[in-house]
Design goal:
heterodimer; A: 132 residues; alpha+beta; 6-stranded antiparallel β-sheet; 3-stranded antiparallel β-sheet; 5 helices; 9 strands; 33% strand; globular; B: 363 residues; 6-stranded mixed β-sheet; 6-stranded antiparallel β-barrel; 8 helices; 21% helix
Chain lengths: 132, 363
């Protein structure tokens, strides 16, 4: 079973999350539902610090044994930190996608983009529909 | 999509179902790594009903197969299995298949799922050409197949039959009753582990599945899907038809030269001989990533700035805990320990040519 989707963050239709730190930065990652769909994650390609991405552009790559999936930037901005632990411990994404499995820290270009993302309730509804 | 007789069981087990060559097949029940490791450590059961079975019978069944296939079947004994190749007139591989000799006038060919229809057509056409007195029947829909693989496979299966399975040597089979059904049990598989391929009627195969799953409970048996089947076969250096092998590939470009006997006449021999005389230019090799990343099917292979080949299979190998693959490379770069690199997205990642298999079980 997926973990509860947290109300302290926002979600995309592509199963990423973004969490507003209140200082112009957001932490981003993939949702617990996404890791459950991917199952055994064995490799994560992280962005380089300083990389600028537009909302919806690939910012990282997550690979399971069988699949290669892009992680899309939930918001536009600049990557200012990355979770290096994922290089040696990609399974952190399976264990704790909402916590220790965070992927990058971004400086947000436009806060309105963040505000327009799905809230937890809307995201719940999205995955309920996908399951059918 | 076609469904195997076990489809409903996979759904009940909450398997993830995918389209594999037109068949709705379980790719995983829990996750690939767990199913893979279970196969290596204890045992796993695979639904392989999608694979093809073609029965060749008649006074000239042997002559037909001896002509249709690359391998010399002259010394094959009843109850013996032989791997062979079926070629196009151009010497390309249509299929790599196993030949079960039941009797001098009775053979069963076990084919890849995606090539079965083509194999059947090809063999029928060769029979017409030569007028061999024989029948060639595609019985895939009537036959069910299970693979029980892993170190505990024999202990599990022996609870379901009176036959002493120790008598079945590698690549041999017997016709016995198992779980009260007529079946063929062959010591063979596609995982690199000891194990069995079990055939029964499509009607009986569900019963056998249930009986094996039940018998395996105390051993830690789990069902496994095509995902684990793929990583298991790749670790063991076995090729996948349609991915590593296609009709544009000949047996000498992949490790199948040993299946070819030019001392007999067979379909495709002339073209194949000409190809070997003009020189083999590419070769399928094993590769291991030494840098970051996982080589995947279709990724390009480089040495320095020069493109020298393409990856045909690649994955993270759960037993070895590293990324390995198979690739076609220019024959000049095919020696073990040759340093190469793999184009992964927008960068080149270091790798090296290694011997296959990547994994070999301890006996």
């Amino acid at each position: 079973m997926s973990k509860q989707n947290l109300t302290d963050r926002r979600y995309t239709h592509d199963h990423e999350w973004a969490k507003d730190n209140g200082d112009g930065t957001v932490l981003i990652g993939i949702t617990d539902y996404a890791q459950e769909m991917l199952t055994d994650i064995v490799f994560v390609e992280l962005p380089t610090i300083g990389k600028k991405v537009a909302k919806g552009e690939p910012v990282a790559v997550v690979e399971s044994v069988k699949s290669v999936s892009d992680v899309y930037a939930p918001v536009s901005g600049e990557v200012i930190d990355i979770n290096n632990r994922l290089e040696d411990e990609p399974a952190l994404l399976n264990q704790d996608a909402f916590g220790n499995g965070w992927i990058a820290l971004m400086r947000v270009a436009d806060k309105a983009e963040y505000d327009s993302l799905l809230d937890a309730a809307a995201y719940e509804k999205l995955i309920a529909e996908e399951k059918h | 999509m076609k469904k195997t007789p076990l489809y409903e069981k996979h759904v009940a087990l909450k398997a993830k179902i995918i389209d594999f060559g037109g068949w709705a097949m379980p790719v995983q029940y829990t996750n690939v790594i767990d199913e893979h490791r279970t196969t290596r450590s204890t045992a796993a059961l695979f639904d392989i009903c999608h694979m093809g079975e073609i029965v060749v019978k008649g006074p000239q069944a042997f002559d037909l197969l001896q002509y249709a296939l690359t391998r010399n079947l002259q010394n094959q004994k009843n109850g013996q299995v032989k791997l062979s190749a079926l070629l196009t007139d151009d010497g390309g591989i249509i299929d790599d298949l196993t030949v079960y000799k039941v009797a001098a006038d009775f053979y069963v060919l076990v084919t890849n799922a995606t090539t079965c229809e083509k194999d059947w057509q090809r063999i029928c056409a060769l029979r017409e050409d030569k007028g061999f007195e024989s029948t060639v029947e595609n019985v895939t829909e009537k036959v069910g197949k299970l693979d029980l693989q892993g170190p505990s496979a024999q202990a599990i299966l022996s609870t379901l039959t009176d036959y002493d399975l120790n008598n079945i040597r590698y690549y041999h089979f017997v016709e016995v009753r198992a779980a009260d059904h007529s079946s063929i049990i062959s010591r063979s598989g596609y995982t690199g582990e000891d194990g069995f391929e079990i055939y029964a009627s499509a009607k009986a195969i569900g019963d056998l599945w249930d009986a094996i799953m039940k018998a395996g409970q105390n051993f830690g048996l789990k069902p496994a899907g095509l995902g684990a089947r793929d990583t298991l076969r790749l670790e063991s250096g076995m090729m996948l038809n349609g991915q590593d092998i296609t009709e544009s590939v000949n047996p000498f470009e992949v490790p199948y030269g040993w299946l070819v006997d030019f001392d007999k006449e067979f379909a495709g021999a002339a073209a194949l001989k000409a190809l070997t005389q003009s020189g083999i230019r590419k070769k399928l090799v094993g590769l291991e990533m030494t840098g970051r990343g996982i080589a995947r099917h279709g990724y390009k292979v480089f040495q320095a700035d020069k493109e020298i080949g393409v990856v045909t299979s690649g994955t993270f190998a759960p037993t070895l805990n590293k990324a390995v693959g198979l690739a076609f490379v220019d024959i000049n770069y095919s020696k073990p320990d040759t340093e190469i690199s793999i184009a992964i997205r927008d960068s080149l990642s270091p790798a090296k040519v290694v011997k296959i298999p990547f994994y070999k079980r301890e006996k």
